[in-house]
Design brief:
The structure is a single chain. The protein is built from 8 helices and 8 strands; from the N terminus they run αβαββααβαββαββαα. The chain starts with 7 loop residues before the first helix and ends with a helix. The protein is α/β, with parallel strands linked by helices. A 3-stranded mixed β-sheet has the order 1-2-3. A 3-stranded mixed β-sheet has the order 4-5-6. It is about 30% helix and about 20% strand. The protein folds into 2 domains: about 10-120, CBS-domain, CATH 3.10.580.10; about 125-175, Erythroid Transcription Factor GATA-1, Chain A (2-Layer Sandwich), CATH 3.30.50.
């Protein structure tokens, strides 16, 4: 069994990839592909963290949209020295797939991703629990009325709330 009292600093990636808020989505997509990352930290003109964007956000945006307009802001973060247990709980509570790690307010020293936690054995991917029951996405997860987790995109495609079609859709995972 893994030790949840380990610190986030032990698992984080020490050099997260940054992009200016003024950069276009197509530029961000190229950067993410070159760096082989799923998350980009978005910075303002002063190079301070203003948000986080993932590849899924980029795929839903127009190529010339600016990163500042689609970054999740304010970013959910965790302080250096916190336990992995606290990080996992925060990710679930806030429905995020990564946490910038701050040494002190404003000073980012790394990023902890859901992938880091899976790779280290602290988290298992399970449809309806840590992944969307319908498409398998791992971010923007919310529980439906039955306690099953779906991503926001799949929930927006479901039949109207309170209908029998919605009940079957959510219970069976996207009509599977």
């Amino acid at each position: 069994m893994t030790d949840l009292t380990r610190k986030v600093n032990d698992l984080m990636t020490g050099h997260p990839i940054w992009i200016p808020g003024a950069a276009r989505v197509d530029e961000a997509s190229i950067l993410a592909r070159i760096e082989n990352v799923h998350y980009l930290l978005v910075a303002d003109r002063d190079k301070d963290l203003v948000g986080v964007a993932c590849l899924c956000d980029l795929s839903r945006a127009n190529a010339d949209d600016r990163m500042a307009t689609l970054a999740h802001s304010p970013p959910t973060y965790i302080m250096s020295g916190e336990t992995v247990e606290n990080a996992v709980a925060m990710m679930f509570r806030c429905s995020v797939g990564c946490l910038p790690v701050l040494e002190e307010p404003g000073q980012v020293i790394g990023i902890l991703t859901r992938h880091d936690l899976v790779r280290a054995g602290f988290l298992e991917l399970e449809r309806g629990v840590t992944q969307c029951a319908s498409c398998g996405a791992t971010h923007n997860l919310t529980r439906d009325g039955n306690g099953v987790k779906f991503c926001q995109d799949c929930l927006e495609c479901t039949p109207d709330k309170g209908t029998l079609e919605r009940e079957f859709y959510c219970t069976l995972g996207g009509g599977d």
